């Protein structure tokens, strides 16, 4: 007998499909005037494999955020992010390392591709260019192109490949780890998400300096890759990119998830399943690297990271969990700390960034000389 969750999933999936069909039928003519837009998400990989992902939409560019944007400007930008008109079943050409590849968008306009880089990559480089194009599509006539002169649909992007000299990688949560979200409070999360922008969102104090120290490692000539995994929707990608840039947080791939009425989004295990899957992907394409994991106690990060430790003995160097929850939750986290300790992996429940940084320095993960900078960054962020 089907459960109520299965019933809800079936109803929601059917409603989602029906809505997409109705929207395409009603707004097809209006969408014909919207420009095509290729949204690329930073690719990542190692010298053996690179994973690329993006999306094709009919959407005008969002305005650049500022620290003077009003309530209504932020609300309009959020509406534009979520009211995206995806382009399904279109061929995307990907040019990388002198080779062309093709892939096709799915029903939500997303495309994915895994490629093998050449053997002669420059040893001291981490970021490489990649070009995306829609070969058989041209932009419609717009105010900027009233004569309807054929214009190609192209987008230049970058991919990150961990260099051979990287000593470890970092996988970090975003909500309530890097970015103050209060993810356990639905109304507060919605207010911050829908009514704020990259300038109004707050980082946890000292996080930028700590992540820069981890990327540099104990020797400042190193480059340790940092990956950000979150259950936030891909629609917020540009907001997060702007936020990281403004706060001085090192650039890295952002691994988000699709926003839709599907079983994964509706079930309580959707968050767990998505984050665990993305972490496994990062580990798989970087088989040569151990990792540091950073998260918070508000949701399921300790449970997810504990499972990662069990699945990958010897590959996790340390786990830092920011304490953002009640005492009752802390007891459950401490039990997981005991579990990871049996695998010789320290999991620390920390009150602030400096505590995590001091422990990382004691393990030789960061240069101890960066601790004063992290303390100063924490003071500046609090002010």
Automatic annotation (TrEMBL):
Q: What InterPro entries does the record point to? A: APP1_cat (IPR019236), Mg2+_PAP (IPR052935)
Q: Which GO terms describe its molecular function?
A: phosphatidate phosphatase activity
Q: Which domain of life is it from?
A: Bacteria
User: Which Pfam families is this protein grouped with?
Assistant: APP1_cat
Phosphatidate phosphatase APP1 catalytic domain mapped to chain residues: 168-323
Protein name from the UniProt record = DUF2183 domain-containing protein
């Amino acid at each position: 007998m089907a459960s109520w969750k299965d019933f809800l999933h079936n109803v929601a999936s059917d409603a989602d499909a029906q809505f997409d069909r109705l929207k395409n039928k009603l707004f097809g003519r209006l969408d014909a005037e919207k420009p095509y837009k290729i949204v690329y998400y930073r690719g990542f990989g190692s010298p053996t494999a690179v994973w690329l992902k993006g999306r094709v939409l009919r959407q005008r560019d969002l305005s650049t955020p500022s620290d003077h944007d009003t309530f209504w400007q932020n609300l309009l930008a959020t509406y534009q992010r979520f009211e995206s008109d995806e382009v399904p079943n279109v061929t995307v050409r990907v040019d990388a390392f002198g080779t062309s590849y093709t892939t096709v968008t799915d029903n939500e306009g997303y495309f994915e591709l895994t490629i093998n880089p050449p053997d002669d990559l420059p040893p001291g480089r981490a970021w490489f260019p990649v070009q995306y194009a829609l070969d058989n599509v041209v932009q419609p006539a717009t105010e900027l192109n009233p004569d309807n002169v054929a214009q190609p649909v192209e987008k230049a992007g970058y991919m990150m490949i961990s260099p051979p000299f990287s000593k470890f990688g970092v996988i970090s949560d975003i909500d309530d780890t890097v970015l103050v979200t209060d993810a356990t409070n639905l109304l507060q999360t919605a207010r911050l998400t829908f009514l704020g922008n990259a300038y109004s969102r707050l980082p946890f104090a000292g996080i930028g300096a700590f992540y820069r120290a981890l990327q540099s490692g104990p020797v400042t000539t190193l480059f340790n890759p940092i990956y950000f995994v979150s259950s936030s929707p891909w629609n917020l990608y540009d907001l997060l990119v702007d936020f990281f840039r403004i706060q001085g947080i090192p650039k890295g791939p952002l691994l988000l998830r699709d926003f839709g009425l599907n079983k994964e989004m509706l079930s309580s295990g959707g968050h767990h399943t998505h984050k665990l899957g993305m972490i496994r992907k990062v580990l798989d394409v970087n088989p040569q690297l151990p990792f540091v994991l950073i998260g918070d106690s508000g949701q399921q990060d300790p449970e997810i990271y504990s499972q990662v430790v069990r699945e990958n003995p010897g590959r996790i160097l340390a786990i830092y969990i920011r304490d953002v929850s009640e005492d009752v939750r802390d007891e459950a986290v401490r039990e997981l700390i005991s579990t990871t300790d049996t695998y010789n992996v320290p999991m620390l429940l920390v009150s602030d960034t400096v505590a995590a940084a001091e422990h990382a320095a004691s393990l030789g993960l960061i240069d101890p000389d960066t601790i004063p900078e992290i303390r100063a960054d924490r003071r500046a962020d609090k002010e």
